[in-house]
Amino acid sequence: MIAAMSSLHYGIRCLRAFPASTITKRLPLAGSTHFKCSASKRAFVTTTPRRQADSDLTNSLEAAGFGDEDVIAAYARPMPVSPSYFSRHPQFNDSFVRLQELARKYARLPVIPQSQVERVAWKTKEQFRQSVGEHVKGRDYATCIGLVKRLHQIHPDLMPEEVQEGLQPFKRYIDVFLNRPTQMPIDKFGRSHGVGKRKSSIARAWLVEGTGEVLINGKPMNEAFGRIHDRESALWGLKSTERLDKYNVWALVGGGGTTGQAEALAMAIAKALVVHEPPLKTPLRRAGCITRDPRTVERKKAGHLKARKRPAWVKR
């Protein structure tokens, strides 16, 4: 009885603290219970954590002779729309939780082999960060992309619509009409230009139809590169396509050592050759002349003798 009376007094104090004019302007909140009144224009609002206390208050008021139309509780705690509202990455967490639920729900659906899956360009970590405006960690995003690719393997005829909607935020939009290669022109002298890089070396090459003469920094091939391996690497694009005696090469190389300069020159000659004969792009790519080699020398670390080598361990 004492607890009921204390709840009654607390409810009356809440009623006196807020005038009816300010209460009638409040909008109903999600997850709340409403008791509308026609006479006094009051509403009874409660949130989920306080429903038990409000039910005790309602029972006490009914026992005292008050009805639902005569009572209002003026407090209302706003509830966040997402459970990840107070986290650092609410949008990413919501997407990740949704993917986990979809993976558990449709784990038994048949999948197709990886080789038969439709090729889709997924967003990179930087692109996803920019789209949602959140600094997502690389490890978390890699785990999320793993779930995305697993769901994408579901058979297309059996893939539910909610799975397609869940994968949509991670797809990258690509306009095929804008993604066109730039055509390098041939100048009025019949020369084509190509640029190649390898390690810290840069090479620029000009090709023109001729008898197979090669000049590198104004020097012939045997003076520019002393090693036979470097000479073969520099002209590998012409040799693999059997064009050694068809074009003259004039090149400028710089930076790095002879090995890097030779491989950079091979890339530059291959790109210039594609300008003259575009059908040779596929054979040159298979020969490894067009693709940029990203490997570089690993930097030395503090406390190490070299990049990986450490001093010999001495017990005393």
3D architecture notes:
By secondary structure, the protein is an alpha+beta fold. Helices cover 39% and strands 9% of the residues. The protein has helices at 2-17, 20-24, 51-64, 90-105, 125-132, 138-152, 161-167, 221-224, 228-234, 236-240, 258-276, 281-286, and strands at residues 192-198, 201-209, 214-216, 219-220, 247-254. It has a 5-stranded mixed β-sheet. Strand 1 (192-198) and strand 2 form a beta hairpin. The protein starts with a helix and ends in a 30-residue tail after the last helix. Mean pLDDT is 83; it is low at 1-48.
Order of adjacent strands in the largest pleated sheet: 1-2-5-3-4
Beta percentage is 5-15%
Order of helices and strands: HHHHHHHEEEEHHHEHH
Main sheet record: 5 strands, mixed
Termini separation:
80 Å
Characterize the overall form.
Answer: elongated
